[in-house]
């Protein structure tokens, strides 16, 4: 597996090494040892999938805080998407910055705790699979507005389909976020 560091501390593009022959290919999508060697999460408790029927469907930017903060390993199984991690860790050298990458095929994005995550689909009928390190906790779930001017995330296309929850997400409040982060550490 190839782990490509990104400009965001702890965020990696993970590219499985394909072993190909006349039948097609084989690749490992996860290897406990390879992730552990880099100090990355190796315990995932849930595997999720989503299907977006239309090109331009936006999901995110979502995160959980405190003890519910989660690591995500995201892969686009069918179609294509532009995947974004937004660093919301107050003590991170890349706080407030985002990183986006096109995912399709076997390429994955590793998103550590404390980062918001979201994507916009680049093709119809895009199916996303992702593993998470912590079960979903609605009480600790937060959404950052995809177009919050504080972060100026650069999306490759304007969202055409967006949920009510994501469209009405409030502006990011750094003081409130810091309080929630600190409360989660106590």
From TrEMBL:
Which enzyme type, at the first EC level? Answer: isomerase
Instruction: Give its E.C. classification number.
Output: 5.1.3.13
Q: In which pathway does it act?
A: Carbohydrate biosynthesis; dTDP-L-rhamnose biosynthesis
**Can you state the subunit structure given in the record?**
Homodimer.
- Family in the record: Belongs to the dTDP-4-dehydrorhamnose 3,5-epimerase family.
Give a short account of what the protein does: Catalyzes the epimerization of the C3' and C5'positions of dTDP-6-deoxy-D-xylo-4-hexulose, forming dTDP-6-deoxy-L-lyxo-4-hexulose.
Q: What name is this protein filed under?
A: dTDP-4-dehydrorhamnose 3,5-epimerase
Kindly list the organism's lineage.
Answer: Bacteria, Pseudomonadati, Pseudomonadota, Alphaproteobacteria, Micropepsales
Gene name on record?
rfbC_3
